[in-house]
Every structure is written in structure tokens, then in C-alpha cells.
Amino acid sequence: MDVLTPRSLDEALRLKTEHPDAVPIAGGTDLMVALNFDRERPGVILNLGEVPELRGWSRDDGLLRIGAGLTYAEAMAEPLRSLLPALAEASRTVGSPQIRNRGTLGGNLGTASPAGDSLPPLLVEDAEVEVASLGGSRRIALHEFLVGPKQNALAPEELIVAVLVRPSGAPQTFMKVGPRNAMVIAVCSLAVAVDRERGELRAAFGSAGPVPLLVIAPLAEADGFPALVASAASPIDDVRGTAAYRRHALRVLAVRGLERCLAA
Amino acid sequence: MRIELTVNGERQEADVWAGESLLFALRERLGLPGSKNACEQGECGSCSVLLDGRLVCSCLVLAAQADGHEVVTVEGLAGDGELHPVQDAFVRAGAVQCGFCTPGLVVAAADLLQRSPQPSDDEIREALSGNLCRCTGYQKILDAVSLAASGADA
Ligand SMILES: Cc1cc2nc3c(=O)[nH]c(=O)nc-3n(C[C@H](O)[C@H](O)[C@H](O)COP(=O)(O)OP(=O)(O)OC[C@H]3O[C@@H](n4cnc5c(N)ncnc54)[C@H](O)[C@@H]3O)c2cc1C
Ligand code: FES
Ligand code: FES
Fold it and tell me: Which end of chain B is least crowded, N or C, by CB within 10 Å?
């Protein structure tokens, strides 16, 4: 096993082309668990911790460019918190302070778990994922990036570079069901936004289907929206909950989310 | 592979295996067994250290990622023969039973008080939410952190 530590994005992309099987590590909060328990034994680990281009975020004419290396703790800090309130709320539910100080949005996209907590808020805000290889970069709508449970649209020689999002400014919220506040993989989760400008109710759920999914309805159809969200889900029974419970919980979350957002 | 890092203010070098964690390197290569290994999956917080001033689980940091960085472990908190105020408060409040969780909780509490010297009860609970204790039932740990924050002498 070998660890390669590039000092720039160019170098990182070159190394990824030379070693397409290299496994990137950012915060390590998913990958280290796999390494510690010998579930993964990559030949080459690509340490992204020293790539400055992946850090922080910037704003250009209303478009936010959030580096793949942004941590949950950073997503919870102003002014990002006010620009993407549901993402900040979701970040606050991730793991523990220790996990939020290390875990990144890029890592959440890399893992592409149906329970990834950053994903529903980013879907509601129509985020795109910027990925790059030595050949150039491309933007992929988040809903197309998430192709299946723990599967994304990244090609072997590509890295996730940034998340692009134009904050709607719409009232929005994120809710997550689980046995306690900290350290919980969502039984199910829901991000909700009431976008009066676009005339849309928007919701995206997590842990209630193979991928987090966006559901949209006209503003006037708030009464039927919770049922619509629940029927869009395709949950399974597992150790964390039954499919029936998840569907019920989504309906309840949608009602509460709409109440919060319509009152705002 | 060889890494170079600052641990508790001192420059250190260590020969590490590419796939090992910072926790393993601290305990097995650098002779610092204060950080504990209980779960190796980020769930218990007993391995908590400060990496570049931020609280992290050292079991989830690749040792190689700490190359060139600064680490503070529980061993680095006490001054010359003087307990850190949080350590002192843990002793006085009776917040230690088997003691396995204590180093991680002490590092997490010290980190909290450095950022927020007068935390509310909710803030304390939130800050310690990544640290598990199987013995105390937590109340005395919360008391200890409040005691440390109050700066009260014995
Ligand atoms: C105790 C604990 C609690 C947790 N709680 C939650 C929770 O509540 N909600 C939640 O959503 N998640 C949770 N997680 C999972 C994890 O913290 C998140 O998925 C986090 O976002 C992963 O980010 P990372 O930077 O640590 O990823 P890493 O472990 O570094 O990487 C994760 C995956 O993404 C790939 N990757 C990382 N960066 C890139 C990149 N730039 N380009 C291409 N591929 C990349 C890696 O190769 C790897 O496959 C928890 C984990 C632990 C250990
Ligand atoms: S040993 Fe690192 S969190 Fe449990
Ligand atoms: S004192 Fe035993 S685990 Fe906390």
C-alpha cells in the first residue's frame, strides 16, 4: 500500500490518471472505517488533504462554488449557513463534533449513500457536481450524479472538485428521524423548501429509496404534497426501520416541513 | 513511510505503514498511549485529539495525513506537574470510573472551554455528544465540565 499526497489539483488529477485505481481520502470518516476493519485494502491511497483548490468556497455572480473539501463544520458557519440553511441544518445532524470537523461534502458525494445527509438539501437547491480529470471538467446535475446506492457517476480517472449551487433564498428546512440527536444514520430524512419565486414546493428525501430523490409540486398543492412525497419513496425494511414506518415518517416530516417553511 | 509532525509542541518523526491511523501511530510508534482505542470507527471519541487545533477522532485520520501537521493529545494538556483545569475538575467531580473514556472526554471538554469559556448545559452536551462513557451515566462528567468552566477552586 502506498499513500500519494499531491499539493495541487493538477498534480492530484495527474496521479489519478496514472493510478485510476487509487482511492481518494478526504476527511477519512468513511474510508478509515473500511481500512481499520480491513474491508478495503487499496493499493494506492490518494490523500486530498493538501490540495488547496478543494478547500473553502467562493461566490461569483450569485453562484456558489463549494470546494469538495468543505467540512460540515464549515457548512454550519456564517455566511454559508444563511445562504444554504437546510444544508447547515443537515450538517448539524451529522455524527458528532469530531466527525463534522473532518467529514466533507466531497466525501458524502463520493460515498453516495442513500443516507448521505448533505444530499437532500443540495437536491432541493438544484446543485450540480463539478468533476474533473486531466482532460477537463464537467458538471453533472446532482440527481444524475447519484446513480444508485453507494454508486455515483464518477469515472475512474476523475475527482470530485466542487459543488455548484445558486441559493434560491427560499424558506427551507431539513429534518432527520433517528433514535437520538447525535451519531445517527437517518432512518429517513427530508429537506423541504417553499420556493414562491418559482411557484414550487420542493422536497428531497434520504434513506427511503436507492438514492435520495427530489419531489416537486406546484405551490397551490400543499395539501396533497405530504402524500406525494411518501408515495415517491421506495423504502425497504432494515435494521433501522420498516418500509411502512419510513413512508409514514416522510409524510409527517413533509407536513412539519411545510408548516415551518410556509410560516417563514 | 516516514512522517514528520508536531506532537504536543515537539517535532517528531515516525515510520508508519501507509494504511495505519494516526491513533495507531501515536500509541504504537510515538509512545503516547493516552488516546484510547475502543471502536476504531469514530463512534466513541476515546481517541479524540486536536489536529491543527480541531477536535477529531485520531482513529479516522490516516497517519500519513498528519504529515506536516500539529497534533495535541491528552498528554499535552497538563503543564509542568499541574493538571489541566478540566483534568482537575474531572478528579474533583468524581467523573472518572474505569477511566477508559476519560482522555477523549478531557480533550473534547478542553476544546469546548477554549472556544466557549462559559458554555450552557446544552452546549456542553452537544460538545461531548461524540464521546461515549459506559460507566458514569454522564452526570458527573457534565458536572466536571461546569466546574472547570466556573473556575472554582477545590
Ligand atoms: C461516527 C460516524 C458518524 C457519521 N454520521 C453521519 C451522518 O450523520 N450523516 C452522514 O451523511 N454521514 C455520516 N457519516 C459518514 C461520513 O462522515 C460522511 O459520508 C462524510 O461526508 C464523508 O466525508 P469524508 O471526507 O470523511 O470522506 P472520506 O472517507 O475521505 O471519503 C469517502 C468516499 O469518497 C471518496 N472521495 C472523497 N473525496 C473525494 C473527491 N474529492 N473526489 C472523488 N472521491 C472522493 C473516497 O474515495 C471515499 O470513497 C458518519 C461517519 C462516522 C464514522
Ligand atoms: S476509537 Fe476512535 S472513535 Fe472510538
Ligand atoms: S469511566 Fe468507564 S467508560 Fe467512562
Answer: C
